Amino acid sequence: MSSASVESAAWSRPARVAASLGLLVYLAAVIVPPLAGPPPASALATALIQPLRPMVGALALGHGYRFFAPNPGPGHSLRYRLTRADGSTVLGNLPDAAADRPRLLYHRRFMVSEKIAALVPLPDAPADVRQQARADWLPLVQGVAGQLLARHGGELVEIDLVEHHLPGPEEFLPGAPPAGGAGGNVVVPLGSYAWQQRAGR
User: What is the pLDDT of residues 140-187, one digit of tens each?
Assistant: First the structure.
């Protein structure tokens, strides 16, 4: 290849600057969302993500990598008690590490319980807050209830949201009180759902 063709194929300085700026903006859109995720998040990261939000949303870059580390919060699951027409019952959890195979199925169901948990206030929240939030989480829980009823041939299913206590290092020290006390799991009833109506009662 001649030197003239190499020179013609080279990018101009403005093009190189524009490409470099584009790459830097994209890199920022990948790095900043996890830093500006759920608390604790710095004020700087929260400010940096504001102009990037359209790009983060359009490219689906808002992944919660920080969900897993360095300080993960408590996990959540859906506990259910399903009653069939013959009176027999089925007890279960979503997700279920022993039954959900392949592992990707467990992960997807875990995301369902976490999505619902993000919308359900704690039991000690004001009544008006809990009532307003119900409109957001109820359709999701009804969908889960309908799937459970169809899969197990059930007539009625009761569903609870369980927030699993995440013990700290101090709880493993000798003489520490058991985690089942005040620091135990938090259970929030999400209602009963019937096959005929699939509506909370």
Answer: 999 999 999 999 999 999 999 999 887 777 777 777 665 544 457 889
The pTM of the whole model exceeds 0.90: no
**Could you give the CA distance from residue 38 to residue 46 in angstroms, rounded to a whole number?**
10
What pLDDT digit, counting tens, does each position of 6-32 carry? 555 689 999 999 999 999 999 999 888
Residues contacting residue 32 through CB under 8 Å, at least 6 positions apart: 45, 48, 49, 52, 56
Q: Which residue has the tokens 């609870």?
A: 160
Q: Domain residues of the chain, as ranges? A: 3-65, 75-194
Q: Give me the residue label for tokens 């700087």.
A: 44
| Ordered DSSP codes for 57-97 | HHTT----GGGTSSS---EEEEEEEEEETTS-EEEEEES-T
